User: Fold these one by one.
Assistant:
Number 1:
Amino acid sequence: MKKNTAKVTNSLQPITPPPLQKGDTIAFAAPARNTSAENIAFAQRFFEEKGFKVRVDEELWAVENQFAGSDAHRAQHLNKLFADSTVKAIVCVRGGYGSLRMVDQLDTTIIQKHPKWLAGFSDITVLHAHFLRQVQMESIHSSMPIDFSTNSDAALESLLNCLIGKNVEYIFEPHALSKAGQAAGSLVGGNLSILYSLVGSVSFPETKGRILFIEDVDEYLYHIDRMMLSLKRAGYLDELAGLIVGGMTKMHDNALPFGKEAEAIIAEHVAEYSYPVCFGFPAGHQPDNRALVFGRMASLTVESQKKCKFVQELPSL
């Protein structure tokens, strides 16, 4: 087993966007696949009932094939929302595919001058990773409006708590494949397939000394194996502080079975490292999709026979 000698290499304090207050405006955005009023109705009511204003721009309804308008259209809308001082948070309405096509058209200067919360997951991993690497800004990995009606109360409450500036703390059951230990480090990651698509680019997150979170959905088991090998061979798994594995949901196999489930594949590829590995974390493509803050320091305690614990506290001013 390789000894964990990971040290944080980036000492810059990330930007923490201001917490929301009742009456603040949350804007919806569609950086990827197109959407409809029906997709966002439940989420709009949810935020309004919690005391927030919800902004739904006409740009949200654009359609170009499967996308919410052209790449330029989607980027311009996000730039517009970041530049608008009346908007205090941006919630991405859905994933699908498309964020990677427009991310290089985003104006990081505007984003850095007007930091605000951006929330979403899955395809939105592109934005989380890019903003953290290029702007050093925290963002929220969370459920999105298209899923709000089927999410657990705990999932929706966790997103709200992150937006208003509460600490994150989750206690959950142990998993048979988890590797016991304690870790502390800045949290990075997101959807495994999307991270794989960012390898070698200016958007891939720094992993040395960090706690890496991964989840995925609707993938073939051999592809999980390929992606983990790719990250490993590129050195991204070598010096982690810890690894958190969320839902590996609706996995597929070939007629000739691969022979291992997704969690076992991941466990095999990190078995040689001494850092703690947590499986069964309550986040990902599942109803109980708890919110996480990327870019923020986190502590993880994994115990094989006891409940596990994950904590993120607001940075000291």
Number 2:
Amino acid sequence: MGTAFTCRLIEAGYSPFIWNRSPEKAAHLVAQGARWSNQPLAECDRVIISLYSSESVAEVIGSMKGDLRSGQLLIDTTTGEPEHVERMGNELLQMGVHYLDAPISGSSEQTRRGEAVVLVGGPTEVVDSCGDLWPVLGRTLHHCGPLGSASRMKLVTNLVLGLNRAALAEGLGFARSIGVNPTAALEVLRGSAAQSKVMDTKGEKMLQGDFSPQARLSQHRKDVEIIVRDGAAAGLDLPLSNLHLDLLREAEKQGLGTLDNSAIARLWGLGT
């Protein structure tokens, strides 16, 4: 996702500083016009964060805390834990640093094409101050409310999106098992009342076995764990999400965790 953001920024005329815990992964972006920085928090007034988890965000910000300064803005696009987001925001605000949670609804490929949806939580005046950035990061912006609200909304979207993906995989696997060509099934599904956007973004990947990662399966397993945990804390049973979590864990046991989340289709024998 960080790569997609950087490419979008360069195309929009920005000359962004970039940093990665694995510098070699950023070399191709430097070649395209980005500028490497060993101290991005020291050099940038606005910082876009894109990491794996809330724990990763805390680790990275903690390691660079000495470079933070009053008036700075951190835009965290990580799909993280809402309570962590709120705690981090309160800590940073005591230093005069603004913090927005801005998770992206969409894959890295959709983001790269400018088709993603940006969910943002935080004070209206801080959100409005980034009016030039939101169209670069996504096609649509939803200001969900105060800090933490966007992270909660992202969990809602990921719950439904993940179940749509699993349902498509099971449906295509079922089609093949009863003698229906999965390619024909996907075409019919796309034009039927069962249609979902997942069919356009993940259907062909499932059929072709192209599981090059746009969003890794293990990353979604992490999100579903948060969903199940937060549902239980609210006193709500989520039977479909609990089953989905079991499926994702089984996929990881089969070595599919680093592949695209559409690789869940392998559980039904697709893409092999």
